[in-house]
Amino acid sequence: MARGYTVATIALALDISAKWVDNVLSHQTIPGVTQSRQGVPRRISFEGAFVLWVVSRLSESLRIPADLAVSGAQALAQTGSWEAGAWLTVSLDLATAMNELQSRLAYAVEAAPMPKRGRPPAKAKRGAD
Fold first, then answer.
1. What's the rounded Cα separation, in Å, for the pair 110 and 121?
2. Is pLDDT at 124 greater than 90 in this prediction?
3. Residue 68 in contact with residue 84, Cβ under 8 Å?
4. 93: containing domain
5. For residue 90, what are the β-bridge partners?
6. In this structure, is residue 45 part of a structural domain?
7. What pTM, to 2 d.p., does this model score?
8. Of the candidates 5, 114, 115, the residue with the CA atom closest to the CA atom of residue 51
9. 122 is a domain residue
10. Domain tally for the chain?
């Protein structure tokens, strides 16, 4: 079974805000992201993390909206090339990019906090023995 990363881990590895990751995942369908019902944290595979990373870089460097960046990132993640128009092709060195992301995720897994789930423990009442 492939490893699943949390939103916080992905945000740390990609050097972007967790809110941005959450917003993109709420509005776009990205392969490799499992979502369930409310209260269950999302799990993001390496493939999903890679697409998110490319989306963030396309949005940041080319100033394109996330919905367009998602389709471009999916094409880039599969083939390393995206035909963005009749005369424009964006390319990506897949091997180098994947190696860098693996290094970033290895660091982030160790550094990212694990989110606490559920209710906080009950406080002891005063005078109760």
1. 26
2. no
3. no
4. 7-111
5. 82
6. yes
7. 0.80
8. 5
9. no
10. 1
Place of tokens 């005078």: 127
What sign for the dihedral angle of Cα 109, 111, 112, 113?
positive
Single-letter residue type at 13: A
Q: For the chain, what is the total number of helices (H) and then of strands (E)?
A: 5, 4
- Whether 125 is in a domain gets the answer no
Give which of 10, 16, 12 is closest to 30, Cα–Cα. 10
Count CB atoms within 10 A of the CB of residue 68: 14
Say which DSSP state 36 is in.
Answer: -
User: Residue 91: is its pLDDT beyond 90?
Assistant: yes
- Distance between CA atoms of residues 72 and 54, nearest Å: 8
Position 79 in a domain: yes
Q: Mean pLDDT across the stretch 16-34?
A: 89
